[in-house]
Amino acid sequence: GKRLPQYLERGVDVKFTDVAGLGKIRLELEEIVKFFTHGEMYRRRGVKIPGVLAGGTWEGLWEIRLIVVIVSFMPQTVLVCAASGILLCGPPGVGKTLLAKAVAGEAGVNFFSISASQFVEIYVGVGASRVRSLYQEAKENAPSVVFIDELDAVGRERGLIKGSGGQERDATLNQLLVSLDGFEGRGNVITIASTNRPDILDPALVRPGRFDRKIYIPKPGLIGRMEILQVHARKKPMAEDVDYLAVAGMTDGMVGAELANIIEVAAINMMRDGRMEITTDDLLQAAQIEERGMLDRKERSP
Ligand code: ATP
What we know:
The chain is α/β, with parallel strands linked by helices. The chain is built from 12 helices and 6 strands.
């Protein structure tokens, strides 16, 4: 029988409305989704994307002509079409993974993910073979999004690696480059990678046609933090008069992961007191706890 895909994440049901505080960054990702969903429309009609006019059916040709017209009014979309990879850059916990899942969720395509630290093995060739399987699975189950977390773990500039392990990493990186290049019907598999060190990536990775689209996701500002709190509050019994802005004001420097945690801790607080609703006070207390945790983490890391 058919092998079960190893890197497929099932039941990814994230939508753009689950990702808050990103402003126009979300719009950029929405374009990618548009491309995906349009691509699917062609595929169903037996038309490959892009540049395969010759192979299309008459019906397909009609659609392509339409698309040429649409695309010429949307220069951004052309850019997306030309890219096989999107790089999401930013500090940990700002929602890079969440955003990649939302792209797959909105487009209704399969989501394959791997952490690049899993690529880096002691034995030469193991990482490379994982990259190959990953892309083979993604292709067999296309359309799909491939998400590579911590790309810098494997994509570090080759000269920067000292000592043993360098050879294995080179082999893995080379395979990744080959996989990124190797798509005929590119539109069917899009790679999204995340990193908090775009500056140390191997130049070969960010060349046109590879990860040539870089999107920076900064830590959220005051309003962004408020919106993130509100998104996570949707699934909780919140008091009607909760002052989200006040809580946002007390969480300067925090990222989405920490803000999501504040809601969880506040909910526990409510339960412990045997109350039915989460109050502003619960949130402020939770924010204080989270802040202490944040400072601890800062002290421990150099
Ligand atoms: P890392 O680099 O550490 O993997 P990341 O940037 O990929 O971090 P996520 O894993 O996407 O961050 O975020 C962790 C969790 O924090 C998410 O599952 C979500 O619950 C919450 N979160 C983070 N950012 C946001 C956001 N912008 N809106 C809503 N929730 C968020």
